[in-house]
Specification:
Blueprint (H helix, E strand, L loop, with lengths): L9 E2 L2 H11 L1 E8 L2 E8 L1 E5 L2 E8 L4 H8 L2 E13 L8 E16 L2 H16 L7 H5 L2 E15 L7
Antiparallel strand pairs: 1-8, 2-3, 2-6, 4-5, 5-8, 6-7, 7-8
Bound molecules: flavin-adenine dinucleotide (FAD).
The site of flavin-adenine dinucleotide has 11 residues, from β3, β5 and α2.
Amino acid sequence: MKGMTKRELQITDPHQIQKILDTASVLYLGLCANNEPYVVPMNYGYTMEEGKLTLYLHSAVKGKKLDMIRENPNVFFALDCDRKPFEGKVACQYGLSYSSVMGQGTACIVDDVEEKKKAMSVLMKTQTEKDFAFEDRLVSIVAVIRIDVSEYTAKHRPIPEKMR
Ligand SMILES: Cc1cc2nc3c(=O)[nH]c(=O)nc-3n(C[C@H](O)[C@H](O)[C@H](O)COP(=O)(O)OP(=O)(O)OC[C@H]3O[C@@H](n4cnc5c(N)ncnc54)[C@H](O)[C@@H]3O)c2cc1C
C-alpha cells in the first residue's frame, strides 16, 4: 500500500487505532470482480492480536457482495469516526476533523459453525460492548465474512489550531 502523503496526520499508536475501530461502527467494503467496482456499507466486528487486524462481517446468505467475494476475495475497506466540521472566514478554511482507518485484505466466507459463532460474538461486542453467545441455529441463517487484513493505516485530521 502506498504511504500516506500527509505523514504528520498518520496514527501509529495501537491504542488510538483501536479506539477508532471501537467507535466507527460502519465500514465501507470495496470489492471488484470482472472489472466492476462495488462499495457496500456494513457493520463489523474486529480482533487485534499482536498487531494483526481481523474483521468480521455478517449478512444475508445471498447477494451481490457474496458473489463478488467468491469471484475475487481481494478487498479494501475504509471507516471513520469523530467527524467535527469547522468553519473559517473563507470557503477554503472550512473543513472536517475526523479519525479514520483504511486497509486491504483477503475476504473469506466462513462455513465452520464454531468460527461463525465466535465471529458473531466479536461483531456484537464491537457494536454494543456487550457479550452475546450464539446457538448453531442462529448462525445457520446468516453468512459470515472474515477479512484477514494484510495492511492498514490510520489517520487523524485535527481541527487547525487557529480554528479552535
Ligand atoms: C449504515 C449501514 C450499515 C449496514 N450494515 C450491514 C451489515 O452489517 N450487513 C449487511 O449485510 N448489510 C448491511 N447494510 C446493508 C448493505 O449496505 C447492503 O444493502 C446489503 O448488505 C445488500 O448488499 P448486497 O451486495 O447483497 O446487495 P443485493 O441485495 O445483492 O443488491 C445489489 C444491488 O442493490 C444495490 N444496493 C445494495 N445495497 C445498497 C445500499 N445499501 N444502498 C443502495 N443501494 C444498494 C446495489 O447497487 C446493487 O445494484 C448496511 C447498510 C448501511 C447503510
